[in-house]
Specification:
- The complex is a heterodimer of chains A (296) and B (338).
- The mean pLDDT of chain A is 91.
- In chain A, strands 9-8-7-10-6-1-4-5-11 form a 9-stranded mixed sheet, with helices on both faces.
- With 296 residues, chain A is of the alpha/beta class.
- Chain A contains 8 helices and 13 strands.
- The longest helix of chain A has 17 residues.
- Chain B has 338 residues and is an alpha/beta fold.
- Chain B folds into 2 domains: 194 residues, Rossmann fold (3-Layer(aba) Sandwich); 118 residues, 3-Layer(aba) Sandwich (Rossmann fold).
- Chain B contains 8 helices and 18 strands.
- Chain B is globular.
- The model of chain B has no long low-confidence stretch (mean pLDDT 93).
């Protein structure tokens, strides 16, 4: 029996590596200097979906919501093995909080239709909220299995999953369809395949055609390139809110119940620090000082 | 508003033991409810747990909504969400707080989604205040204060219109108040109604283990980052910790690199610590790490990069190779003990 999967992915700023140029002189973050990456645990989610496909067959559809630039991670998903990728992009969804985002994603999944499993990373490294997965599950009216580490079995319409927590494990059996949020660690995501990269390197959204033409001048005109993409099925599917039938009152800033009242940059306080020589004398003096002031 | 506003806490219990974070939240909810002139409500679920209502009241609750049912014996998302969502619909609490534990992080978004309510994850501060927008003033909202963007900004979030105002808070972030055995409260017994769909998932096996480290209770912590270089090299930190009677902590980078288990992670997505002494070894000092340890009374930082951000919050700065500095510290400590 084959199982169809939808994988939810997100392009995120690489917040784990805020060093060097990304840190300004006044101690704040220069967001523009941060590279945009495939959210790490979403790669684990994609890998889990691809393994289901390897064993049982079925289609793996990868879906992201974001600006046009997010097409970058959809190409990466194609290189790694996704059958079909969809970009949900609409200015009116900008500023959506987790609730509005999950509503829009649930509408898009309903448009995809025939799915047995939805996979997403446990959380995204830019917000670390871990909220979108469970909220999408609630909007779809399906059970959720958070902290999923591995699939033990998939038979008929039931899945057995091992969940991993900092202080324990749990094995659960659940009826399909259901949604899994995946924790990394157990399985290494497969690297992009050279063959798939070659086959999909021109995959693009319509907005990217002009830039693509600069890199592939042999197509001469945008129309010729667009025709080529169409023939080879290299058009990344792009949906707007209207395409998936969202109620625009429920998305974007106005559709988000949470509002940002205030944002403060964390400024590194230049504490008075004492430089200790990294030699025997320096370290002995430090230890003695800490013993004398009762720290040790 | 004429009705009394209720500040609710989801009380997490496992085998009859109330989670520490739930007690901390009851303490916080008491403060918030007093500011609002409101009541503290506790949502307590499980099987054979009726006797827990009393300690929950002692910790600050005015009313305990108690659901005691065989299907609630072990935590599962849908039965718990059913009970809590039905209670929210019926009583319309003003605020609803959860511990940011695996259970709280699984349950809270499910309830928020069903109620179309806003939810803020991992708050480090909760206060009552006003919010103005488009010439409307919203009085007495919950300020949900949290680090965002890898800990580089601190954002204050409000949910002006869609209530309850919901937030999760990590263990150890809020102060734990003393229980008051004289406090009286009301117990409202809830009779859960489950659908077949609510029972779509069954737990086949469950194993839990005791924590192997107690970072929150530690007065000295020796922590390592990616600069430690390998799992084997973390032994150096364990050696130093042994001499000091300390616990071993780690940055997210060290955990992600597989040098040490996640249980040891200090920072925004790990635990928040306030030790007497924090020794940061090979930790660059990303804000997300500093958010979990900058309240340490004394910080020693050892790093080979003189420009590492960790030095900006350290009290003692050692620029050097930790493979030489740590053994020198161990020797100096042994000598001082003689």
């Amino acid at each position: 029996m084959a199982y169809n999967s939808v994988v939810l992915v997100k392009q995120v700023p690489d917040t784990a590596n805020i060093i060097g140029k990304a840190m300004t002189d006044d101690g704040t973050v220069n967001r523009a200097a941060l590279p945009a990456i495939f959210n790490p645990e979403d790669l684990d989610a994609l890998e889990m979906a691809l393994r289901v496909k390897d064993v049982y067959g079925g289609q793996v559809t990868v879906l992201t919501m974001g600006p046009p630039r997010a097409a970058e991670i959809l190409r990466e998903a194609l290189y790694r093995g996704a059958d079909r990728v969809i970009l949900l992009t609409d200015r009116k969804t900008a500023g959506s909080d987790t609730l509005a985002t999950s509503y829009a994603l649930a509408c898009a999944i309903q448009k995809v239709g025939d799915f047995d499993l939805v996979f997403c990373g446990r959380q995204a490294i830019d917000g670390d909220t871990a909220q979108v997965g469970p909220q999408v599950a609630e909007k779809l009216g399906v059970p959720q299995i958070t902290y999923a580490e591995s699939i033990q079995s998939l038979t008929g319409d039931a899945i057995v999953v091992e969940r991993a927590f900092p202080l324990g494990k749990e094995t659960v059996r659940c009826a399909l369809p259901c949604l899994l949020t995946v924790v990394g660690g157990e399985v290494e995501p497969r690297p992009p395949s050279i063959r798939r990269l070659m086959a999909n390197k021109l995959a693009a959204i319509p907005q990217e055609v002009p830039t693509l033409l600069e890199r592939w001048p042999e197509f001469e005109t945008e129309e010729a390139l667009a025709d080529h993409l169409r023939e080879r099925n290299l058009n990344i599917i792009v949906w707007s809110g209207a395409d998936i039938g969202v109620d625009y009152d429920r998305v974007g800033l106005s559709g988000s119940p949470t509002k940002v009242l205030n944002v403060e940059y964390v400024i590194l306080s230049g504490a008075d620090n004492k430089a200790i020589e990294a030699n025997r004398e320096g370290i002995t003096a430090l230890i003695n000082e800490l013993v004398e002031d009762y720290t040790l | 508003m004429s009705e009394t506003r209720e500040v609710w806490v989801f009380v997490e219990q496992d085998n009859g033991r109330i989670a520490g974070v739930s007690r901390e939240l009851l303490t916080k909810a008491r403060e918030l409810a007093d500011t609002l002139d409101g009541r503290v409500g506790a949502v307590l679920m499980g099987h054979g747990i009726a006797e827990l209502a009393e300690p929950v009241i002692h910790q600050g609750a005015d009313v305990v909504y108690l659901a005691d049912h065989p299907e609630l014996e072990v935590y599962r998302t849908l039965p718990y969400a059913r009970v809590a969502s039905d209670l929210v619909k019926e009583h319309q609490p003003y605020i609803f707080l959860y511990g940011a534990t695996p259970v709280g992080r699984d349950l809270a978004p499910r309830i928020a989604s069903a109620a179309w309510a806003g939810l803020t994850a991992d708050c480090t501060g909760l206060q009552i205040g006003d919010f103005e927008r488009r010439e409307t003033t919203y009085k007495d909202l919950l300020y949900q204060i949290r680090p965002a963007f890898g800990g580089n900004i601190i954002a204050t979030i409000v949910n002006p219109e869609m209530h309850p105002q919901m937030a999760t808070v990590r263990p150890g972030v809020m102060r734990l108040g003393e229980p008051d055995p004289a406090r009286q409260g009301e117990v409202v017994v809830v009779e859960p109604q489950f659908t077949d769909g609510d029972l779509a998932l069954e737990v086949l096996e469950r194993t839990t283990r005791e924590p192997t480290c107690d970072l929150q209770g530690a007065s000295i912590i020796v922590a390592g980052g990616s600069g430690v270089g390998s799992r084997e090299n973390f032994q150096l930190l364990y050696d130093l910790a042994e001499v000091l009677g300390a616990e071993v902590g780690a940055s997210r980078a060290a955990v992600d690199a597989g040098y040490i288990s996640q249980e040891h992670q200090v920072g925004q997505t790990g635990v928040t610590v306030r030790p007497r002494l924090y020794i940061a070894c090979g930790i660059s000092g990303a804000v997300q790490h500093r958010a979990g340890m900058d309240q340490a009374s004394k910080i020693i930082a050892i790093n080979s990069d003189p420009d590492a951000p960790i030095f900006q919050i350290a009290h003692y700065k050692i620029v050097g190779d930790l493979n030489e500095v740590i053994p020198a510290m161990i020797r100096a400590l042994r000598d001082s003990a003689k």
